[in-house]
Amino acid sequence: MKMDRKILKGGEYLITEVPCQDVFTPEDFTDEQRQIGETTEAFVKNEILPHVEEIENQNFVRVVEGLKKCGELGLLMIDTPEEYGGLELDKATSMLVAEKIAASGSFSVAFSAHSGIGTLPLIYYGTEAQKAQYLEKIITGEWAAAYCLTEPGSGSDALGARATAILSADGSHYLLNGTKQFITNGGFAELFTVFAKVDKEHFTAFLVEKSFEGLQVGAEEKKLGIKGSSTTQIILDNCKVPVENVLGEIGKGHKIAFNVLNIGRFKLGAGVTGAAKMALVEGVKYANERKQFNAQISSFGAIQEKIADLTAGIFASESLVYRLAGLLDTKLSTLDKSVGNYYEEYLKAIEEYAPECAISKVYCSEVLADVVDEVLQIHGGYGYVSEYPAERFYRDERINRIFEGTNEVNRLLIPGMILRKAMKGELPLQREAMKAFEQLMTPSFEAIDQSQPFAREKSLIGNLKTVFLILSGAAIQKYMDKLEKEQEILMAAADLAIQIFALESAVLRCEKVHAKASARKKELLEAVARVCAFDASEKFATAARKGAFYVEEGDTLTMILSGIRRFTKFEATGLLQAKRTLAAAAIEDEKYIF
């Protein structure tokens, strides 16, 4: 991947006009990346899908075998440094593998937990001795790994954990006590990253082997979906952990927890995008097979509109995910690997884009929710029957809006992190908000040059950014540092930021690819941009009006509402034909068409 594009700060997209050349897209994949994607697809098709029913019935031998096969193929070592036997590939490749593995259903949950939160804390924070002891076992699949943060009484409030760690009298080990809840891979993992409070105060991570005295694995949870993944309690009853197995620094466990969550969020965005593609294909194939009123239901406009809308939503998700990959890889490419604090700087670089990581998690998981809901609807009564995959897709989807921090928590984080950047002087949000207010007061008669592809969509994006700045400026002015307590306002602001990033990612990708595309591809790109823009403008306008009523009243409210009407207006001429174009291509090809 070329790294000559400008390095944007996290959240800076809200105040900057981004050139399409600076955005990484799936069309930019190298031959090596495509080959890795194809290898992952072939693995899922040949090694996992033939055993889906066994896995769904919790034959975890199949899951462990699958993880070992992933180890043989190198799929568990993509983020691992070369000096420890890893491949150390870029984030775009890591996301591509997460996307492709998603077609494996419940197995993908085990894979993601193992290769992500199960492995990364050791890579980023482990000592040389710890890495030498455990890392090879993990990246080859010899041992499965798990991550123990959540407790019965602390989910989103991770730092409210009650598990304790007390140093033994002879100073050789810690005694861990407490219960960890909803631990993915809990039933078969050999190594656990466990968080506990040293002396009931200092939040700390530990590397705990399954064989350590005092560790007990609870019963498998009976779950709504992802039934083929192992989810258990991990019970710590005076569990003896050698002092050498403290991970990172005592009292600094929050750094490990939160930094790994940022990575989990963007990988989840990629994974659910892959799942959405798979579900869409099943929906289209069924629509082509099913006949009602002596016609294939795929010939009905009502079904075609669903297929078009789902295709556009997935396109925006995919564009967003790989744009974020490009941001991360560009930033990471500037770091000096030879310095002693490399991983500290590495994690700071990822943390820079924590708002975009949260956006990826929220937007893409909600697109998947729309996709599986409509795919089940396309199946009609058969979608409710477990013999058809639509039923499993529907059940499996639901957890993704809870994983890696609930979507509500992530929505609160997005504007919160952006506002903190503004308060530190890292983003000139207030200055730009003042400019936006000037635009609100000044009628504009500037015509859009419609001879340029995507001119209408790009004009809309600029206008949406203006509305975001107007409402953000008004909220900051009214509430100042108390704004972080106004959760309803933050949730509305998050929806604005999310829609802008998603739409801009989709449109910039269309613009970048358009020039060298075939005539058919040009038509599809223009259609998907139109559908994405209309959808985003409608959702954005609803959230903006809500935010305006939350923040203002009287004449100022009237003025802002007038501005919202003006700035969210999108001339969506040709929208129906755009949808029919997308639907026709998807129905003919029986695949995700981009």
TrEMBL record:
Alphabetized UniProt keyword annotations: FAD, Flavoprotein, Oxidoreductase
Reaction equations catalysed: a 2,3-saturated acyl-CoA + A = a 2,3-dehydroacyl-CoA + AH2
Domain Acyl-CoA dehydrogenase/oxidase N-terminal positions: 30-142
Keyword Transferase included in the entry's annotation: no
Keyword RNA-binding listed: no
Domain (Acyl-CoA oxidase/dehydrogenase middle) ranges: 146-239
Domain Acyl-CoA dehydrogenase-like C-terminal: 463-566
GO molecular function: acyl-CoA dehydrogenase activity; flavin adenine dinucleotide binding
Residue intervals of the Acyl-CoA dehydrogenase/oxidase C-terminal domain: 251-414
Cofactor or coenzyme needed: FAD
Subunit-level organization: Homotetramer.
Cross-referenced PANTHER family: ACYL-COA DEHYDROGENASE (PTHR43884), ISOVALERYL-COA DEHYDROGENASE, MITOCHONDRIAL-RELATED (PTHR43884:SF12)
Family designation: Belongs to the acyl-CoA dehydrogenase family.
Protein name: Acyl-CoA dehydrogenase/alkylation response protein AidB
Species the sequence originates in: Desulfuromonas soudanensis
